[in-house]
Amino acid sequence: MHALVDADSLIYLAGFIGEKTHYEAVVESDKGELGVAQFSSAKEMQAYEGKVLDYHTWKELKPLSFSLAVVKDKLQFIADKYSCSPEVYIKGDNQYNFRDKYATLAGYKANRVNTAKPEYYDDIRRYLRDRWGAVQVQSQEVDDEVGCRLTELAGKKVVICSPDKDLDQFPGLHWNYRSNVEYDMTAEDAQNWFWQQVLSGDPSDNIKGCYKVGESGAKKIIEELDPLLTQHGIWTEVVKQYAVSTEKPGCPYADLDPYEVALENARLVYMRRERYEIWNPPGTPRKYDYPGVEQDD
Fold it and tell me: What's the total number of domains in the chain?
């Protein structure tokens, strides 16, 4: 068995579980009295019945060993459960991301610019490299690397270990190490999940998808398609949905070609099976994009 671990989420899970942010505020009660109050979260502070005049935060950190123990426990559990040495993958130092090139409607992951990292982020990454032989992925994302590795391991027993729903595009055995849930994705379910993402986009990555469709709407559209449709037929129906969406008031791409908008979203959500691969519609030639090499689309 090969256990492929997307460990980027594990870094955040273990890092943030070892720290607690406290909020100390200068407050004015509903009776006009001034005082100092402490809150355990921003939500709790916002719910204060009086006024918050000013505040500052401070972090309470558990020892680094606590966060490293969380990492060790998760990976050792995977090793024991699947009787193998986990193959661990983490984000590399190279900031190049091919999706940046194809995201023209909205900046790819632009909503994550100010996302905080845990205090022990670098320490946990170092531990994953030194103790677990973590591979630093360059020029693509960790979930793309997992997809490429799956292709290399075709015909062998593999489990994908990650809480990232993007990886549900791959059929087979999955282990969610955040919720401790094991599940199987059939080839049909995995393919349908990809098409749903093409329509819904991915808010966590700032991929907008088909205007006013959303995740539940995308699921309904794909589920109601003729089960005899080919993959090309499904793509045609997806493009039709984008065309319909341009007629809705406020559609941000109303003046653009629906085919090109659908193509951009598909390329952004697609998880690679081969290195340098760029998604192209079914029935069209394969497309590859090598860093630093200019190509015609």
Answer: 1
296, part of any domain: yes
Reported in sequence order, the residue ranges of the chain that DSSP labels E, i.e. its strands, are 2-6, 19-28, 34-39, 51-61, 87-91, 135-137, 158-161, 172-176, 181-185, 277-278, 287-288
What is the signed CA dihedral for 87, 146, 225, 239, rounded to 10 degrees?
A: 170
Identify the residue whose tokens are 């990232």: 164
Rounding to the nearest 10 degrees, give the CA dihedral for residues 66, 67, 73, 75: -160
Indicate which CATH number applies to the domain containing 67: 3.40.50.1010
Residue 190 structural domain = 1-18+61-297
C-alpha angle 100/106/107, rounded to 5°? 40
Does a structural domain hold residue 201? yes
Model confidence pLDDT, tens digit, residues 111-139: 777 778 999 999 999 999 999 999 999 88
Residue 31 is assigned to a structural domain of this protein: no
pTM of the model: 0.88
Q: Write the CA distances from 87 to 147, 195, 200, 210, integer angstroms.
A: 13, 28, 31, 36
Which amino acid is present at 154? A
Question: Is 49 inside a domain boundary?
Answer: no
pLDDT digits (tens, 9 = 90+) for 191-237: 999 999 999 999 999 999 999 999 999 999 999 999 899 999 999 99
Query: Any alpha helices (H) in 27-120, and if so which ranges?
Result: 42-46, 64-82, 98-102
44 Cβ partners below 8 Å, 6+ apart?
23
Q: Which residues sit opposite 161 in a β-bridge?
A: 5, 175
Neighbours of 121 (CB within 10 A): 16
Q: Which residues contact 242 (CB under 8 A, 6 or more apart)?
A: 210, 258, 259, 261, 262
Helical H runs in 224-280? 231-245, 258-269
